[in-house]
Amino acid sequence: MATIDTVKEVLSENLDIDADQITEEATMEALGIDSLDMMELICDLEEKCDVEFGEPEGIETIGQLVAHIDSLK
Amino acid sequence: MSSRADIDDLLSGTFNSILRIEERSLDNRLTEGLTITEVHTIVAIGMYEQNPMNVVAARLCVTMATLNAAIRKLVDKGFVRRTRDENDRRKVMVALTKKGRLVYRAHGLFHKQMIEEALEGLSEEEERVLTEALVKVKTFFDERA
């Protein structure tokens, strides 16, 4: 499964965010993802994508999140 | 110019305020029900590490008996898992579960936000001088701790 689809799946399940809203350009802020939501999202993605996400700074969009995960694979 | 008594008050006051703020920061859905000591035990284990108990005990400056009791509770609560060292099956290792990693991250976020907000009013020069002075003061305390 492409990383963006995994992100969509987790966000739809956890935060009930409409998958159509989850585009590469969408910012976390625009999607209503707060800092604690982000922590949960990262831990879920670590498990589903089998990566160690680390503690990168400056991830503001879904595209940046996807690119970071893909760089770890 | 501050008197030495003022500096004493400032150090003790800052230390106590940080502890109180940190205690209050636990009131969120990721760390609810944990004590600050338990959060610090989770942090000492490390986000992705598998560590022997003695390493974690040394990081926390506690005895093995104290750590054992703390780890037992954290295992029961689902934040920590015990594993065996692959090279020496007699050795017990500890690592964080997904729930534990969430707490680790939430705690890191709290510290990052606290420092950013606390230093907001300082100029770059003030921040540099504060850092240099704190390094010296901390070295003194670390040597006597």
Brief digest:
The complex is a heterodimer of chains A (73) and B (145). Chain A is an all-alpha fold.
Structure characterization notes:
The complex is a heterodimer of chains A (73) and B (145). By secondary structure, chain A is mainly α. Chain A has one domain: Non-ribosomal Peptide Synthetase Peptidyl Carrier Protein, Chain A (Orthogonal Bundle). Chain A is built from three helices and no strands. In chain A, helix 1 crosses helix 2 (35-49). The two termini of chain A are 13 Å apart. Chain B has one domain: Orthogonal Bundle (Arc Repressor Mutant, subunit A). Chain B contains six helices and three strands; from the N terminus they run H-H-E-H-H-E-E-H-H. Chain B has a three-stranded antiparallel beta sheet with strand order 1-3-2. Chain A binds chain B through residues 35-36, 39-40, 42-43, 46-47, 52, 55, and chain B through 28-30, 48, 98, 101-102, 105-106, 108-109, 113.
